[in-house]
Amino acid sequence: MTAKPKRSFGQSTNLVGLPTDLLGSREFNDYPQDLHISGAREMNKSLFEMLLQAPDLGDAGIAFHAYMSAMFGADPDQMEGAGRVRRYRSSFLRLLKGWGYDSNGPEGAVLKGWVQSRFGLFPTYHKDVIDRISGPVWTAYVEEKMSSRFHNNAIHTQLDMVYEFCQWALAKHVAPERRHITLYRGTNSFDEHQIVERLDRRRVIMRINNLASFSNDRDVAGCFGDIIVTAQVPVVKVVFFNSLLPVHPLKGEGEYLVIGGEYLVDASYL
């Protein structure tokens, strides 16, 4: 019997302390372990001490937004002092806004690049299928993710803090003691999220892009395609969800940003 080729999900290094190939595997998604980005909580102890005083998620979101505004300037168009020239400052809110317009745009490349940097997982799609490192699609992705326009305000550090706040909020207020959340994605093709193996007419092993949008509302997911992908997403792989902050650009679609890898999913037509 011919052995299956070894799966490879990304680079050998990451900042979460687990092998990348384990993190991207179906086995991890079935039996997830806790994940934390090295140093993110330790360097922001005052934020998490402040969050403990918040009675609910709404107040916690306000506190987080105030902290990020003080640290980085939440408004990317904010003035740099009276009488000075307006200077663009990259912001996680600006990236979320760009993702909402087009997940394969420049902001999407930066977000996928952050997942690659912190979790080690390579994207499988950006404007087109990424079938090999150093190919033209990969090169175009790298050029966009490294754009200096988005790297002048410690943007990866901002995203680290968003992830850690999201994990804190899920554990404290939204999904305490839960290991998985049922989420949905509508699609019309499997270019971006590739089928690795069919188990039966509905169940498939799907390799989901290193960062992908899902919804907690099946009807909303159906607006984006005739095929509904239903996944049990590990809580530790949720980067952002629509009620995390009181104001943000992804409101209104029940959207969750999810770290990818191989998932056992149900794929069925509406």
Please explain how this structure is put together.
With 270 residues, the chain is of the alpha+beta class. It has one domain. The chain contains nine helices and six strands. Strands 1, 2, 3, 4, 5 and 6 form a six-stranded antiparallel sheet that branches. A hairpin with a 4-residue loop joins β2 and β3. α6 crosses α7. The longest helix has 20 residues. The chain is globular and about 50 Å long.
Mean pLDDT: 90
Domain count: the total is 1
What is the gyration radius calculated from CA atoms?
A: 19 Å
Q: Note the gap between the termini.
A: 38 Å
Q: Describe the sheet with the most strands.
A: 6 strands, antiparallel
Strand content: 15-25%
- What characteristic shape results from the CA principal axes? globular
- Poorly predicted sequence stretches spanning 5 or more consecutive residues: 1-5, 76-86
Helix content: 25-40%
Q: In sequence order, what are the helices and strands, one letter per element?
A: HHHHHHHHEEEHEEE
Secondary structure: number of strands: 6
Structural class: alpha+beta
Output the number of helix runs.
9
